[in-house]
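FIELD: query
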Amino acid sequence: MEQSSLQYTAKAIEEAAISMSNGPIELQQAASAFILEWQETPNCEKLAFSILGNSNNQFTCYICCVVIYNVIKDHYLNFSLDYQKQCQQEVINHISNQKHSYIVIQKLNSISILMGLLSWSSFWENFPMILYPQINFNHRGLVDLIQQTAFEIENSNFIDGKCRSSLIQLYNSHILTFFPMIFEHLMNVDEIDLIYSVLASLIYIAPVELFDNNFMIEFYQNSLHNEFQIQQLCLSFFTQILNQRSYLSSLLTKTADFVISYYMSLGANQVTFFDEKHYEFLLAFLKNSPILLKTNNVNDISLLFTYTLANKEMVAKNCYAFFDLWTRLVQNKDFSPILEGLTFDHFYQLLNIIEVGANEYGIIKSSKFKNFYCKMFLLFPNQILGIIHNANIDLNIVYLFCGSTWKVLSQHKETLYHLLFDCVFQNGVNTCDSLYFAMSSYILNDNNLDKFTVITNYCIKVIQSNMYYLPAVFALHSLVKTNHIFFKDLCLSLSTFVFENINNLINHDLFLQYFEIICQSIHKNMLVLHQIEVFVKTTINSNGLNIKTHFEIWECLSIKKFLSSAFLPYFLNLRSLLIQEWMHDEELMKHYFELISLFSIKLKQRCIEEILTLIRCIYDKFELYEYLFMLIGKYRHHVQEFEVYIDEFLKILIIPFLSQGCISESFIFMISQFSIDIVSNLSLLSYLLVSVRDTKCEITNASVECLKILILHLKPDDCSLFFQNYRRCILSSIFSCLLDMLHYDSLTKIATLLECIFIKSQDDPLFSIEFNDEILIYTDGKPFEVINLFQNLMIFAVTKQSILFKQNLKDMIINLNRMTPKGIKIIEDERCSDTDLNVLLEDNHNNETEAVIIGINDLSIS
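FIELD: result
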């Protein structure tokens, strides 16, 4: 294909399509632009239909389908009724053409569905048979048509809610005509999964009658006894149906006897070997037990519930569905008849099984899970208490029973307390930490001073004999968070003991637990604050502290509102301790920046100075800047003292980073917060304008992106002042860069920057004058290059305001064409009509030396 040719013939279109499919990248881009231009010409769809019928190249056929789709989408409603029918007939003819590949048929289906959505006329009354007269479910095109149609009717943006409702009703009448044919072909097709795909797609849109008929019931019953593949597909499909409430009642009533007898015939032993599809189906089936109970034996259904416990692996794998089913069982009164058929042994079996999957999926932490066990306790209180007393159950479960449900279990509270308390003292240091948590939870909800004192003193006594005993430490950690006033005296004696022995804990894993206990005690007894200050002054500079312990100390201190400013010098010493290590540990630096952020509210100015010091220390560590950008971006509007440092900050951070050609989300966030400061900084603005013309593409892109972000975030008043002062020099730099054409890859970004300037300035009467003046400066002697440039910009303009921007560019192209030799001659001869101007534009286009670059992917609209 000659690139300069604009003769849109079948041969030229086919050559362009072939070039797009396997030509070199330059030829692909030119061919893509050629196809896009053809798509904008009148009656292009007629040529596309013609090529579709005659070409044997499947990619050419696909390109024609794309063009037809776009024309139908934009212009179909403007066609006459006769021409609409003609287009419909063309699509029918091509779908029936056996030579087309599946991907072409799929696109033709999309076109037919689009026509239906835009104007579902009487012509489609026997849809889909008009497109596929022979209902053959081995044909992927038919399956695809039914699936696509159901999906588009449900989700398409081309129709509104009222139209969607009527269209669903109309489409459903078509479904009823061909639905029985599905069952005629169901067991005879080669690709049975296609049939299930059709059925599954219809569940969400088809009428209830489709799933409440003899075909469906017979199919339902036969599939469970069929070969493995059919059985698996059937179970998956009917699980979907059971989860659609509108289909449940009648279908369940007619099939429940068969399903129950089927599983009863298998027995519990056989159920153990269930695969996942069987298990999901059984869970979905039993969720509807209240409906089943109306016509079925409650003992049978209770027995089916016990079957769900048979396969431990399936319980773990389907933990959410399993747990949802059993929660309904114990909480919903409609299920209460089934509970009578279950014993505590079943629930005890459940306790052992559920742990397999509960911890892995996080269910064990949910309130629903805890309420479930609480309900079990109310059902079987004596059995549960016996298990706790004999320690025959995992003590984490004890915590679930006791730690979260005291208010609900008020009638058993005293019994539980004595059981737990006896267990603690009998087992001593061997007691599971869950019991300590359970005890502390009980105390927090009981407000009993005596019991609180007893358990707290006991925990303190335990750690005095063994400071590394985890259960007692964790229990104290929980107790100290209470606001009980009677903890005031206890916390002072506790902190005194801890600080006397703190050296034994330095760098130990339990150090953080103990230090948090102390920090939480401060507001109950201010004498503890003095102990912490003494500890910090005497210990923080010790060479024995590792980095992890340093961070633990400052994290604990930073969350306190009464943080003493006297601590700051010791905190800043942390940098000097870290200086040798942080250069090699990115996580360490990130952690330190977070600490600065925690201190920033209290210590504003000093922390900003610390940030600047950090920047100087890591000036060549650009991977660490990401943390600084987010931190500094947050400071801009919250820390007034930052104003003093803005100039220095801009110079030592932004310029070095841009010199690397890097733009990240955190960087964008930061500079957007400083937009007015940056554009008012002449040295930085000059740097950006020079960098726009850099010989390195990445630096040009970064600078253009930075300018665009700054301009977008300017407030209206600031924007007006900025453009009065700097718009001309910005336009000058941009046009200079564009006409040098150093980086064609930057064209999209530059186009969006010009759009941004245009949109921000369109209310300014001087803007268009300056814009045109800048163009004239660079036009002298090279009008063709400028025309080509503006044509490219029109392609790359992509924002919502692009219409105004493109129109402005179009007007300039027309004016520039008048400045070419031929244009001047026409003006001098006073014969410059619109026809002459169109000829002029066409001639200039044929003389361009640069091709319009556009990606092939832009062609794919669908």
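FIELD: remark
The radius of gyration is 38 Å.
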